[in-house]
């Protein structure tokens, strides 16, 4: 299977749809861990392959740094999904999500804040890496 921008976009659509489904059933204002576990169930139902609480190797000037850098989800080895349940998304949350995407060499990352009224309009932001921009469109 060839990885294309279209494939990444379709996968992103499925992931955001799963987040909307969880938000619709669970509602806003719960702890991030609740949404995380619900999403694992939702991804299983959709047949998506994912790694949860994935530890990201980190090196500094060629030396491995023994610290715990974890992303919430890496889905189909292509998309980083970072979850929040906060009053508002700050620049640091976006930077964290983009950093994870770049460290994992993923084409896209999605930042989702479950503590909103309308997840689609207020709670989702996606980011594309240089890898995504270099992929064929179809």
From TrEMBL:
Q: What is this protein called?
A: GxxExxY protein
Q: Which organism is it from?
A: Chryseobacterium rhizosphaerae
Q: What is the lineage of its organism?
A: Bacteria, Pseudomonadati, Bacteroidota, Flavobacteriia, Flavobacteriales
């Amino acid at each position: 299977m060839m990885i294309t921008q279209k494939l990444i976009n379709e996968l992103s659509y499925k992931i955001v749809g799963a987040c909307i489904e969880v938000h619709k059933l669970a509602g806003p204002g719960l702890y991030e861990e609740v949404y995380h576990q619900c999403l694992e169930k939702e991804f299983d139902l959709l047949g998506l392959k994912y790694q949860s609480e994935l530890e990201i190797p980190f090196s500094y000037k060629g030396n491995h740094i023994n610290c715990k850098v974890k992303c919430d989800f890496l889905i189909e080895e292509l998309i980083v999904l970072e979850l929040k349940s906060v009053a508002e998304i700050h620049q640091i949350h976006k930077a964290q999500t983009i950093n994870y995407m770049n460290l994992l060499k993923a084409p896209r990352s999605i930042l989702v804040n479950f503590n909103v009224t309308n997840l689609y309009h207020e709670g989702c932001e996606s980011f594309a890496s240089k890898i995504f921009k270099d992929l064929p469109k179809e």
